[in-house]
Amino acid sequence: MTAYSLLDLVPVLEGSDVPDAMARAADLAAHAEALGYTRYWMAEHHGMEGIASAATAVVIGHVAGKTLTIRVGAGGIMLPNHAPLTIAEQFGTLDALYPGRIDLGLGRAPGSDQRVAQAMRRGLDTDPNAFPRDVMELQSYFADDGQTGIRATPGAGANVPLYILGSSTFGAQLAAALGLPYAFASHFAPQLLDDALAIYRREFRPSAALDKPYAMAGFNVFAADTDEEGELLATSMQQSFVALRTGQPGKLKPPVPGYLDTLPPQARMMLDGVLSCSAIGGPDNVREALLRFIGRTQVDEVILVSSIYDHDARKRSLTIAAEAMPA
What we know:
By secondary structure, the protein is α/β, with parallel strands linked by helices. The protein has a domain at about 1-160: TIM Barrel. About 45% of the residues lie in helices and about 15% in strands. It is built from eleven helices and nine strands. The chain has helices at about 20-35, 55-65, 85-95, 115-120, 130-145, 170-180, 195-205, 225-245, 265-275, 285-295, 310-325; strands spanning about 5-10, 40, 70-80, 100-105, 160-165, 180-185, 215-225, 280, 300-305. Helix 1 (about 20-35) crosses helix 2, helix 1 (about 20-35) runs parallel beside helix 11 (about 310-325) and helix 6 packs parallel to helix 7. The longest helix is centred in the last third of the chain and has 19 residues, at about 225-245. It is globular and about 60 Å long. The protein starts with a strand and ends with a helix.
């Protein structure tokens, strides 16, 4: 059966704050654990008041401490923002605290703009080889092979699986060359999904980490007991994408009945594109949409994204998705 996992951006809700977002994240992860989700990931973003996972390693530790068995990790760490040694130490520490449960997905986008990247003291490196070099340096620290001349403590010998993330064919090529699992961000950038998966599978080289390709893909789920309720729940995420694309990002807003009807055609077209890998509606629609997506991609694992304003409705959405997956 295709594995199913959860990506949570740890949203800060309109009318709420970061401590509440952290509490909801832990509760959501425990709920996903009880439903049989394989892993709970969160992503690094900076300078966005609606996302509370900027200090990703810290939030991973918080969630791992509130759960027992589910894998917890980054989907992902934006490696251009950090020295690889720092990430080796952070995730080596997490592995020491929660052995066998920590994942490390790596992306090459900054998760911010140039101004925020400069504030983090890590300017954007335009050298296309910088990200692959950083990934291999990080591998060296975990392998404790002495190639860097520096020993990461903690980190040396840590059991932290690496995943390459991407929304283009670049990440697919790198994951294939290094023999690592690959996760495609089709939950917000689906345009190159099929091309990237084909390249990854065709060019994959077995490694000590992986003997055959392991592909994952993001998929939005706005599930409810009725189609109408699911469509209403999706409007919070739709508002977020419109706000982001118009330079006005903010906290996750409550759902708005008839929201799509208020938008100009170009905004509707934008949403149709970025959210094309989505299931919206009641259990039957969600099950059919998941079946179509898995049939199309043949991925080994689906990373579900369910950004819903109401916490109980969000948990219900994840329950409906988990019940659909055995199909």
